[in-house]
Amino acid sequence: MARLTNWLLLRHRWQEGGFSLIEVLASLIIVAIAMAALVPALTLVAYRRAMSERVEVANQLAQAEVDRIRTLVDLELAASPGAFQNPVQLARLPRIGADPLDSTPPPANMDTDGGNYSIRLAQIELPGRNPEEYVIQSFRNSGGDCIDRRNNTVIVGVPCTFLMGVRVYHRFSFNQATREALPGLRTESVSANQNLANADVWLFPMASSILEINLAADLGDVCRGILATTANPTNSCDAFPVPVPSL
Fold this sequence. Notes:
alpha+beta
């Protein structure tokens, strides 16, 4: 009887001191099931975050491409109004696209310029991720003739003002082996309403825009622009006459 009493007391103290092995195993199983249920959700969150970062990078690349062309126009034409009469200089501008401009097709290959668009590649490094490659497609219309303000003439065939389109695709929009575009590659930009977890998201550019490129305005342009908004325009801008086409 004394032995049974001692055994019961020891068992009671052991139970008070912690969980049983069965309870520990049951807890581990519950935690494992909960973690397994959370993994897909956590993976989706990480994927969406990565895709959002890619869209942000693409928009930055698109803006950088626009700024590059705008700076090229300003610097080259400021130094020489007829700069783009030189075929080599003119080739630095995007190629002329389709008409209307937004009908310009997507790139067929990430390495080869098309007949009506230009291609540049950009490799971006982000913290904690392997370098990623982006394809920048740019194109323009024929634009308006350039003005030589020094000689008060119009330089026919040299564009100072034109519409420019730019699209930025991710490397995954192209076949990894052949570097050719995936079948069905689109031209409209991926939107916030699209399911970024859908595999079809790679058929869309990460960024896309069409905007106007203008040579930086001089004082005459500014003066005439201000007077155009007044009720009684004057001849105060006569010091900056409007150029006439050269024959």
